[in-house]
């Protein structure tokens, strides 16, 4: 190879490697390191895309019930196991019909293309299934708030999140189990 060509290719190779590293870091920053779910930024971009393409989309907020007590009683490893199990159950439930994310702490979010295409009762059942951990069966429970975008005057993600949040708190008020649709 000609020395001039090699000298020109070395900086290009360096920039290509640098670009690859930056792309990998950006992708990693959009994923929660514990659960593998999208972080708020990564999920928001996907949710907004889903909402634009699917008028029957719905937004869900999921909050684990009694998470602090579980963490305090069984330790942080058990709390982490509960978060990972919740993420896996939510991701599985969304399947090809939606995207799940972790907002932080014990709060999760999902967007699905069409609520009629998924079984909300199945999600509730999955999130309330006990978790085997270190020979102990940990009780899990979650409150779910749901907002159908079609019920909003203008289908904006921020409004859907606010309505799902209100529905989630209403579900918590009903005994901390189950789900509630926004109205």
Automatic annotation (TrEMBL):
Keyword Cell membrane in annotation: no
EC number(s) recorded for this UniProt protein: 2.7.7.65
This protein's record includes keyword Cytoplasm: no
Domain GGDEF: 55-183
InterPro entries in alphabetical order: Biofilm_reg_signaling, GGDEF_dom, Nucleotide_cyclase, Rev_trsase/Diguanyl_cyclase
Top EC class for this record: transferase
Single GO molecular function: diguanylate cyclase activity
Pfam families reported for this sequence: GGDEF
Keywords tagged on the record: Nucleotidyltransferase, Transferase
Protein's name according to its UniProt entry: GGDEF domain-containing protein
Provenance organism: Streptomyces anandii
């Amino acid at each position: 190879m000609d020395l001039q060509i090699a000298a020109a290719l070395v900086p290009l190779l360096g920039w290509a490697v640098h670009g690859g590293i930056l792309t990998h870091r950006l992708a990693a920053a959009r994923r929660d390191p514990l659960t593998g779910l999208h972080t708020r930024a990564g999920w928001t971009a996907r949710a907004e895309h889903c909402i634009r393409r699917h008028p029957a989309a719905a937004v869900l907020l999921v909050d684990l019930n009694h998470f602090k007590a579980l963490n305090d009683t069984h330790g942080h490893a058990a709390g982490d196991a509960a978060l990972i199990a919740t993420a896996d159950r939510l991701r599985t439930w969304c399947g090809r019909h939606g995207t799940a994310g972790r907002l932080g702490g014990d709060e999760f979010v999902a967007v699905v293309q069409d609520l009629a295409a998924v079984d909300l009762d199945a999600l509730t059942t999955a999130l309330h299934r006990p978790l085997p951990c270190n020979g102990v069966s940990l009780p899990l429970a979650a409150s779910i708030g749901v907002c159908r975008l079609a019920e909003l005057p203008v289908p904006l993600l921020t409004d859907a999140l606010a309505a799902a949040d209100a529905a989630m708190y209403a579900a918590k008020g009903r005994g901390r189990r189950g789900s509630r649709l926004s109205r």
